[in-house]
């Protein structure tokens, strides 16, 4: 299977920042990875990493906040970015077990917090096909 044209390959989701919505994001991640010709193990790794990203952000989210997710396909992998409005401006804990899991499952991991009263907080991961 060939990778689709990256200009049209992005998949975006916007849903309530609630743990009940994790199955939706996990399902979309698996579908996107299958379409990008990832192996079964790579699909599982991406699905677990996406679950961890979203779980971490949901715990940091302000009440009623939305979770914005974007899958971007490129020539050799998938970049996933999720963001939400932070309850208190704290960044994701990079010394946690969950962060260690992310660094194990994904080829690249990054996080950040914007500015403001309820600043946006985001996590970005990248999974390379064949890695």
UniProtKB/TrEMBL annotation:
InterPro entries: HATPase_C_sf (IPR036890), HATPase_dom (IPR003594). GO terms for molecular function: kinase activity. Coiled coil: none annotated. Keywords: Kinase, Transferase. Residues 16-111 form the Histidine kinase/HSP90-like ATPase domain. This is Serine/threonine-protein kinase RsbW.
């Amino acid at each position: 299977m060939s990778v689709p044209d990256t200009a049209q390959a992005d998949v975006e989701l916007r849903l309530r920042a609630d743990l009940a919505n994790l199955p939706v994001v996990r399902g979309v991640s698996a579908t996107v990875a299958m379409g990008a010709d990832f192996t079964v193990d790579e699909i599982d790794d991406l699905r677990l990493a996406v679950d961890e990203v979203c779980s971490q952000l949901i715990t940091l989210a302000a009440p009623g906040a939305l979770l914005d997710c974007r899958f971007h396909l490129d020539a050799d992998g998938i970049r996933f970015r999720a963001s939400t409005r932070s309850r208190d401006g704290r960044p994701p804990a990079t010394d946690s077990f969950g962060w260690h899991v992310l660094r194990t499952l994904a080829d690249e991991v990054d996080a950040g917090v914007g500015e403001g009263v309820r600043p946006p907080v985001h996590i970005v991961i990248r999974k390379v096909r064949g890695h």
